[in-house]
Design goal:
By secondary structure, the chain is of the alpha/beta class. It has a domain of 244 residues: 3-Layer(aba) Sandwich (Aspartate Aminotransferase, domain 2), CATH 3.40.640. 43% of the residues lie in helices and 12% in strands. The protein has a 7-stranded mixed sheet, sandwiched between helices. Strands 8-9-11-10 form a 4-stranded antiparallel sheet. Helix 5 packs across helix 7, helix 12 packs across helix 14 and helix 13 crosses helix 14. The longest helix has 36 residues. The protein is globular. The termini are far apart. Bound molecules: pyridoxal-5'-phosphate (PLP). Its cofactor is pyridoxal 5'-phosphate. Pfam families: Pyridoxal_deC (PF00282). This is Amino acid decarboxylase. It comes from Candidatus Fischerbacteria bacterium RBG_13_37_8.
Length: 468
């Protein structure tokens, strides 16, 4: 592709993206295609000779777009958001253009140093303890795996890296913890049977006294408790585990405390919501995802540790071909996690934080929380509807309840959700809380405004009426 052609299509794609954001509401939020519909349209074999960009762009629009679920639609209320923003997208374009692979300082000093500074900015924005240092990972799943590996090494005085796991080591998390905890426990070699699920209270927060009992019981049996994973903003209901109490137990029992705040962490930039991290100073590591709720393109997950030395000692490698004369003076992020090669993710984050400034980021998050509270109030006032979990942030769990039996209610709410999502106008997803099927409405797409939440409420009520 020559320079002029590249320029032409580059401008054309930016135009398309700008229009897309204006018109995104004309698409069904959740893709309506059936399994295999897209694959059938892609040739089974690669083309032998090249094709013109015009044709590729046509096929993008014709074949790919119908199979896209529009996460940046203002009617997005499913899962948690993975929101983005124009400054983030522009940053990603430059990152793609540079095509740097930022494994060590030398392979792009600016990437390493900007990442270091961005993590300092985020640490201040969330008021994490001074002295903590951070690294950008792809996802919270990876960050939690790093925490489990570092916890394993610290518990065994860095013996497991050398000799493999010789002891029966245990991990603790609330029954409401994210599925990545189980996955990571398996990958890190602890074994699923050594993961202890601790009961949660009526607000879906871990019960610290149950945690303490379980750790002591395990110690008496000869197991080695290695890591507690607390969740701030559980995936099902945004429950907030009490870090202060959990932290004291972890300090007394000398167990690594990792805090997973993948979604909710962003809310801690608001002074009024900073309480969700009260007690964080007791933690050894912490993760939250700017790629969920901080207007930064997927992927960008911020992982912080109290003691970078333990992290580096767990992951460092020193092959001859990666040695440079600067290694004593600089941060080589290859030693801060699993992957060697690394994307330049700090650039988009820099653009987002600078373009909006902390104040505007705060006001956008505050607005999402306000909209969720508003929706909660509508539910509370409406006969036949009920709120199913405390609404601390921007997630509302609710269901319809006309007094029929629990198992029938589950079926009823399932049909309600299918009917809502089939409209294509909004998209929301479900979970179960203490065995009850509930719908989740998560506000967080950048363009979602009060009118969109109002519209969602009308659709939900209409669908409820039609199935009752
Ligand atoms: C979304 C989520 C995760 C997983 O996030 P990834 O970055 O996709 O790995 C983990 N924990 C919680 C609480 C989450 O909400």
């Amino acid at each position: 592709m020559n320079k002029d052609e590249f320029r032409k299509h580059g401008y054309q794609f930016i135009d398309w993206i700008a229009d897309y954001y204006e018109e995104v509401q004309k698409y069904p939020v959740r893709s309506q295609v059936q399994p295999d519909a897209i694959k059938k349209q892609i040739p089974e074999t690669p083309p032998i000779s090249g094709e013109p960009m015009e044709k590729l762009f046509e096929d993008f629009k014709e074949i790919i777009l119908p199979g896209i679920t529009h996460w940046q639609h203002p009617g997005w209320f499913a899962y948690f958001p993975a929101n983005t923003s124009p400054p983030s997208i522009l940053g990603e374009i430059l990152t793609a253009g540079l095509g740097s692979q930022c494994m060590i300082w030398q392979t792009s000093p600016a990437a390493a140093e900007l990442e270091e500074r961005m993590m300092e900015w985020l640490r201040m924005m969330l008021q994490l303890p001074e002295g903590w240092e951070g690294v950008i990972h792809d996802t919270a799943s990876t960050a939690t795996l790093c925490a489990l590996l570092t916890a394993r090494e610290r518990a065994t005085n860095f013996e497991s890296n050398q000799s493999g796991m010789r002891k029966e080591m245990t991990v603790y998390a609330s029954e409401e913890a994210h599925s990545s905890v189980e996955k990571d426990v398996k990958i890190a070699g602890y074994g699923k049977q050594y993961l202890r699920y601790i009961p949660a209270d009526a607000a879906f927060a871990l019960l610290p006294e149950k945690l303490e009992d379980m750790i002591r019981q395990d110690k008496r049996k000869g197991y080695m408790p290695a890591c507690v994973i607390a969740t701030v903003g559980t995936t099902s209901s945004a429950g907030i585990d009490p870090l202060e109490a959990i932290g004291q137990i972890c300090c007394a029992e000398k167990v690594w405390l990792h805090v997973d705040a993948a979604y909710a962490g962003t809310a801690a930039i608001l002074p009024k919501k900073r309480w969700i991290l009260n007690g964080i100073e007791h933690a050894d590591s912490f993760v939250f995802n700017p790629h969920k709720w901080m207007f930064t393109n997927f992927d960008c997950s911020a992982y912080f540790v109290k003691d970078p030395g333990a992290l580096i000692r767990t992951f460092e490698i020193h092959p001859e071909y990666l040695k440079t004369g600067r290694d004593a003076q600089v941060k080589n992020f290859r030693d801060w996690g699993i992957q060697l090669g690394r994307r330049f993710r700090a650039l988009k984050l820099w653009f987002v934080i600078r373009y909006y400034g902390v104040e505007q980021l705060q006001s956008m998050i505050r607005e999402h929380i306000r909209l969720a509270q508003l929706f909660k109030e509508w539910i509370e006032k409406e006969p036949g509807f009920e709120v199913m979990a405390p609404v601390h942030l921007s997630l509302v769990c609710f269901r319809i309840n006309d007094g029929r039996k629990e198992n029938e209610l589950n079926e009823l709410n399932k049909s309600l959700m299918e009917q809502i999502n089939d409209t294509g106008k909004i998209f929301l997803t479900h979970t179960t809380l203490k065995g009850k099927y509930v719908l989740r409405l998560a506000v967080g797409q950048r363009m979602t405004q009060e009118s969109h939440v109002q519209n969602a409420w009308e659709i939900i009520r209409k669908c409820a009426k039609s199935i009752l």
